[in-house]
């Protein structure tokens, strides 16, 4: 099999699975759309609009169209042998290394966004993410990626579990744990930096990039920033308004 | 002629107002520099540059300055892509993929400085051609668009999504249409625009106002790029740069017809909804190869080939802004990000747009192209150094930029969840060769389509003939149908037979 025909075979196998997912989604949303009044139903004694102004009209067209196109895609995938490939060899065309790479990135991004950003100081959370991502993927070492993902998952998972509800987002135990994870990960980074020059910049980049960004956003653009009560940012904000700002305000 | 002169006078006024404002230069120099750096770094794109800056500047500074930052980055990034194309044989952006065909052979032959000088000049001229077309055609179309009513708007939005889906699909056209429909479906979430009926909110109050544009843009364009780029890539051998980077005016004079033709092609392709600079570059390169006497030299270090692609991809910028400003339909993926900036500033591009904004956009583009030209000639070596930064080092910083940019637009942490969700979906769509631009255009145009489609039916009491009774609407119905029918196997076979007979 030539490379191109192999790629097409993998693509059609993926199309097979994608079309099944799309068909299921279209049917689900068509069912959800059926809950929106279409033919001027009465609601609490008030007559609804006519069919042509109904809020269901356009969604019906969209999901109907999606269902038809998904069926056509399914037919194309089956005709091109996609079903056979999909059922015989899982068929998404990923090897072990690629699956590991994607999974570790997904874990890092999930715990960063869902766990760390809302609860943990932005500089600490982002410093950990930058260190983990550079250490994990620079040079393509699978074990480093696993270690990095584990560190972010540990910090993010703890923040999610220990301080889940919004009322607890200002607590600081997750900030401290994130700091420990960040410093813990910086040690192997510094050790590896002896051989890989590019890694030498990581500690500086991991601190200053989020520091500059969050300060620019909060004090330059005067916008809301995540975790205002975070361990470091709280101090920065206090000293900005109490120590620094009076210098030019007065 | 009077019309053109009055336009030029209006442009002159807007240009002068920009030139005498010192703050202009602060945003312009910074954004063009950032844009060129984004374009030069393989793994970052022009769309990403405009998207990230939309998160940062979109609604935090006055729109006038936000436009300088976004357009400056747009112009810079399209040009910046030529650096790695020429020196590394890796296109910095998709727009400069065709540039690598002749740029790298020239660099290998020790003519890298000359090639960069030529691309800098061609990009400058290309941007000016596109901008001039924008200045003239936008007004002609604005006059026509005054007679555009709800049926035409609905059909135009549909045409934009379908055309973008058709032209941006790498694999099956049907995938582009599916992407467009997914975008439209996403736009249906929230309170509907006519009756305020909640749709697909699943009891989550955040969804009542629908999907916000900036997190969707960030998710669709930034997250997949970051996931894809975080892998070990052996940096190619940087071609040694010999000679000074200077414009070769002799070559410019000689290839003036090529530059003009490429500028026109780039502008035309840009004006097609959703079709970006990459298509413009390749179409112009293909046409150049066919019509040129030196066509056989294309791909072997031809200056004409280099100028064909590089002029067209920058001319595309002005072209892409024509449908955006006149009809509210983005002409390219970066223009879609620009539309996001307009939307969060409550400016609705389209027939009712303030003419002052158009003149300002034109003036900014001209000033940005000047800045790009000067930076290209005098600071090129800085960008060549930037080329050496591995993407595993800068992409994590981009992720942090994306997160804080998306958070600060207004929706807070929910916007970040949305961004991440859209990002993972877009990554898998990329993997399966679904184009992302139609999805984003669908999200942006979805509410317009929904509102105008139903309003048309409301005004006609449910009579569907409203979509064919007006000449403009009838033409658009015919175009939409032709686009769909042309993809049917029967039509494709008929086209192939016709082509065979002609040949």
TrEMBL record, chain A:
Transmembrane regions: 51-78, 99-116, 122-138, 145-164, 176-194, 201-221
This protein's UniProt keywords: Membrane, Transmembrane, Transmembrane helix
Origin: domain of life: Bacteria
Name the record gives this protein: Tripartite tricarboxylate transporter TctB family protein
From TrEMBL, chain B:
Superkingdom of the organism of origin: Bacteria
Domain DUF112: 26-441
Transmembrane domains' residue ranges: 25-53, 65-83, 122-142, 176-195, 207-227, 357-380, 392-410, 473-491
Keyword Transmembrane: yes
Key words of the record: Membrane, Transmembrane, Transmembrane helix
Entry-linked InterPro entries: DUF112_TM
PANTHER family: TRICARBOXYLIC TRANSPORT PROTEIN (PTHR35342)
Name of the protein this chain belongs to: Tripartite tricarboxylate transporter TctA family protein
Originating organism: Pseudoruegeria aquimaris
Source lineage: Bacteria, Pseudomonadati, Pseudomonadota, Alphaproteobacteria, Rhodobacterales
